[in-house]
Design a protein that fits this description.
By secondary structure, the chain is of the alpha/beta class. The chain has one domain: Aldolase class I (TIM Barrel), CATH 3.20.20. About 40% of the residues lie in helices and about 15% in strands. It is globular, with a radius of gyration of 17 Å.
Length: about 260
């Protein structure tokens, strides 16, 4: 059993417990304040020339790296991200990544698209995402069937959410469906944890042209974004690079300044 299998097994138990704690599950969630909030379009922000295309992540820890940053607050980090990023990614998995749904709600005051980054294995989580103020959900092809992706993506769209489908190889591109808005290529090998942007570059031409392509993981240098942009990628999800610094806000600002100097 690899780490993804372990996470999914735990997630099924976790989600079932949450469902059991709530009667009239979806009805309760639909009454939450954020449920009727008009969502921000990540597509619009990614295509805005004023923005960087970066989807900057708030992440406390990971299974492979352990604690990354447990001091910087959601508020200070996301407010810095919101100035130039095209979107913000918030980990809401607590067991393996140290995140919570409260983290996403704490970031919601920023008027920028927010991705709920979690392991979605149940429709209940999609209603949760809408209820806590997310604009986009992540669906991971490696842990979902083609039918589940179609079902979950269709539900998300009916709630006004955009959908990012994450793939790791060409085979998983078979999960792409009409209701998917973005295809994210995770540059991390799930078996070896090795990371290379070559994974994104090799898959780009196989991604349907109407789906905006997003490169994920392993982006720690501005030159990588320049290379990926030239290849046709519109989004760049950056997780640990900023959070590993003592002050992620300053690290992000420096990164953007360097990136802009190379894009002139």
């Amino acid at each position: 059993m690899n780490i993804l299998d372990t996470i999914i097994a735990h997630k099924r138990v976790e989600v079932q417990k949450r469902k059991e704690q709530v009667s009239n599950k979806n009805i309760i969630l639909e009454k939450q304040p954020y449920f009727e909030r008009p969502t921000n379009s990540l597509r619009k922000f990614l295509l805005d020339p004023i923005r960087t295309g970066i989807i900057a992540e708030y992440k406390r820890k990971s299974p492979s790296k352990g604690v990354i940053n447990n001091k910087a607050t959601v508020k200070e980090v996301t407010e810095a991200y919101a100035q130039f990023a095209s979107g913000i990614s918030i980990l809401t998995d607590e067991e393996f990544f140290g995140g919570t749904m409260d983290d996403l709600q704490s970031a919601r005051h920023n008027n920028i698209p927010i991705l709920r980054k979690d392991f979605m294995i149940d429709e209940f989580q999609i209603f949760e995402a809408k209820a806590i103020g997310a604009d986009v959900i992540l669906l991971i092809a490696a842990c979902l069937s083609v039918k589940e992706v179609q079902q979950f993506a269709k539900l998300a769209k009916s709630l006004g959410l955009e959908v990012l489908l994450e793939v790791h190889n060409e085979e998983e591109l078979g999960h792409v469906c009409d209701a998917v808005d973005f295809v994210g290529v995770n540059n991390r090998n799930l078996k070896t944890f090795e990371v290379s942007i070559e994974t994104s570059l090799k898959l780009f031409d196989k991604i349907p042209a109407e789906k905006l392509a997003i490169a994920e993981s392993g982006i720690s240098e501005t030159d990588s974004i320049v290379t990926l942009r030239r290849a046709g990628f519109k989004g760049f999800l950056i997780g640990e690079n900023f959070m590993k610094e003592a002050d992620p806000a300053i690290a992000f600002a420096r990164f953007v300044t360097e990136l802009n100097s190379k894009l002139v």
